[in-house]
Amino acid sequence: MAIDPRGSDLKRYMQEDPGGPVVMLNLLRFKEGGRKSYEEYTRATQPFLEKVGGELVYAGNGSTALVAEPGQAWDAVLIVRYPSRAAFSQMVADPDYQRITHLRTEALQEAVLQATTPWPGRRK
Questions:
Q1: What angle, 0 to 180 degrees and rounded to 10, lies between the N-to-C axes of helices 34-52 and 85-93?
Q2: What does the pLDDT read at residue 70?
Q3: How confident is the model over 2-61, as pLDDT tens digits?
Q4: pTM for the whole thing?
Q5: Domain span at residue 101?
Q6: Is residue 124 assigned to a domain?
């Protein structure tokens, strides 16, 4: 299962940059006992987010899936806003940040990390 973006993923992410802020949707499925490691990762990530002007907008536990196929329920959802795709790329390229990413990798069984763009007329 996919956990971490590869170099080719980041390259495509930057090539498809429409400009402006980006809101990243994080859908997370934890390994047994992985939640604690992920919580440690989120605390350790905070200074890196602040450094690039990013912000954790929402973090919550998955609950009742009203519309989902079997296996599509997620343990947690995070929404993180960055001022630009370049800011996100700058953060993940930081050698100090890279030293803590093992916490995320070790915590997750599966993840979706998807850049979103605002609908026309809804840019914020």
A1: 120
A2: 87
A3: 788 888 888 999 999 999 999 999 999 999 999 999 999 999 999 999 999 999 999 999
A4: 0.89
A5: 21-64+72-116
A6: no
Q: Does residue 122 surpass a pLDDT of 70?
A: no
Write the DSSP assignment of the chain as a string of letters.
Answer: ---S--HHHHHHHHHT--SS-EEEEEEEEEPTTHHHHHHHHHHHHHHHHHHHT-EEEEEEE----SS--TT---SEEEEEEES-HHHHHHHHH-HHHHTTHHHHHHHEEEEEEEEE-PPTT---
33 sits in the region (left: phi over 0; alpha: psi -120 to 50; else beta) called left
Place of tokens 């803590």: 100
Residue 33 belongs to some domain of the structure? yes
> From residue 110, how far is each of 4, 12, 29, 53 by CA, in Å?
9, 21, 5, 27
Q: How would you label 106-115 residue by residue, b for 16+ Cβ within 10 Å and e otherwise?
A: ebbeebebee
Residue 60 lies inside a defined structural domain of this protein:
yes
